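Ticket #4471: structure output looks truncated?

Reporter: J.K.
Steps to reproduce: submitted the chain below (108 residues) through the standard prediction queue, then opened the result file.
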Amino acid sequence: MIARSFARIHESNLKKQGLLALTFQNPDDYERIREDDRISLVGVADLAPGRPVTCIVRHEDGTTETLALVHSFSAPQLKWFRRFCFECACTLGPLRGCAYLFASSLRE
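Returned output as attached by the reporter:
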């Protein structure tokens, strides 16, 4: 999910549901997104704390822009995200049981 900003509790709840909460590294880039754009995220598989995610925006007129997005996942959260969310989506269906798995994995 990409937003201009998140309330801290909302961002935390998104993480617990296995969703990647992203904001714009440059807040002014929010205005660059148009209603009919198609967005591709590059580097999601290589997420690391403090490392931006590349966002390629393809506008309806055929032009493209590259924007930087940021996340607030810590190393333990990223470990959980990779281990459980992808597994849940493949075996149990999206989001099923992710909040429980998130909480229990942080105690490991």
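Triage note (M.O.): checked the attachment and the full token line is present. The helical segments are 8-16, 75-91, 98-106.
Status: closed, working as intended.
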